[in-house]
Design brief:
Blueprint: H1 2-23, H2 32-35, H3 39-45, E1 49-55, H4 62-69, H5 77-87, E2 101-107
Antiparallel strand pairs: 1-2
């Protein structure tokens, strides 16, 4: 019985250590935020796009909004995503919040 109790304590301690590590391992503490391009970097590269504020409506997703705002496809999807992330660093293109306003690129 003592072995089972000892193993239970060890398991609980390891579980608490893992939980502590997961809760304190935020992207802002790692270099992931350094890897995201900032909007000022795009200004220096002279990429030709305008920025528009857009409020998300129910049923819309990232691609439907990009297609609505940019009816003529002039750039690849990776550029749309990287420009959007540069304008909205905390946003997730797969989980846009309804009624929230995001910045979207409009290409000339």
């Amino acid at each position: 019985m003592n072995k089972v109790r000892f193993l239970g304590y060890v398991f609980i301690i390891l579980l608490l250590i893992a939980a502590y590590h997961d809760l304190n391992d935020h992207p802002k503490n790692s270099n992931q935020s350094d890897q995201l391009p900032s909007y000022s970097n795009y200004e220096r590269k002279s990429i030709n796009f305008q920025v528009v504020s857009y409020q998300i409506n129910d049923g819309e997703n990232f691609m439907s909004i990009i297609e609505k705002l940019n009816p003529q496809p002039t750039i690849n999807i990776e550029s749309y995503i990287s420009d959007f992330q540069a304008l909205n660093p905390k946003a997730d293109i797969y989980q846009l919040e309804v009624s929230r306003i995001y910045l979207f690129p409009i290409y000339d």
